[in-house]
Structures are given as structure tokens and as C-alpha cells.
Write a structure and sequence with these properties.
Blueprint lengths: L2 H32 L5 H28 L7 H7 L4 H24 L6
């Protein structure tokens, strides 16, 4: 196995472990509030679901960029991916608008002329 393939596998396993840890933490926080005990099988299944969803999201982002003949993913690609989830789409649009406002503020502050 090549060094590059080993690195990809290690990165994937590291990402899966990080997702598992975050899902575990969230499940335990919610379990305390709901007075339930999540099983390790539930946490593992939910972690795998989150990983697969992230994989699908990444593939879709790449495909949208490729379809537009770009090698870079843009905010419009992210908006396209989130179009079926109203709440997520709202947050992404708000975030995108704040980025645009910051850029406008930064560029206008660079054009200040002192008399």
C-alpha cells in the first residue's frame, strides 16, 4: 500500500474518531436533559450516519463546482447543498451575507482619503 493511501486511511479514521467523540458528547448532554441512556451501538450508528452524510455533502459540493467548470467550491455550491433544509439554508445565507458585508466594509475602509 502506498504512503498516500495509508495517509488517506489514517485521515479517514481520525475524522471518524473525531465525529464519534462529538456525537458521543452531544448524545450524553441530551441524554442528561431527557433522562435517558444512549447505547454505544446507537452512538456508533449515529456517528456513521453523520460521517456518511458529510461524505455525501462533500461529493455534492465537488460535483456542483465541477459542473460549473470550477476547481474551487464556492458559497453558492454550499447554498445548493443546503436547499432542502430550510433552517440550515437560512443559517448559511445569513453567514454568507455577513461575509459579504465584512468584505464591503474592509474594502471601503481601504478607500478612505484624508484631506
Amino acid at each position: 500500500m502506498s504512503n498516500n493511501n495509508q495517509r488517506k486511511i489514517q485521515n479517514r479514521e481520525f475524522l471518524k474518531a473525531a465525529i464519534w467523540q462529538i456525537v458521543n458528547d452531544i448524545c450524553n448532554e441530551e441524554a442528561d436533559e431527557l433522562d435517558v441512556i444512549p447505547t454505544q451501538q446507537f452512538i456508533a450508528s449515529l456517528s456513521e450516519l453523520v460521517y456518511k452524510q458529510a461524505e455525501t455533502f462533500a461529493t455534492n459540493l465537488e460535483n456542483f463546482a465541477n459542473h460549473a467548470n470550477r476547481s474551487t467550491i464556492s458559497i453558492n455550491d454550499v447554498k445548493l447543498c443546503s436547499r432542502r433544509n430550510d433552517e440550515l439554508n437560512m443559517h448559511i445565507n445569513e453567514f454568507a451575507n455577513s461575509i459579504v458585508e465584512q468584505r464591503v466594509t474592509r474594502s471601503s475602509s481601504n478607500n478612505i482619503f484624508l484631506e
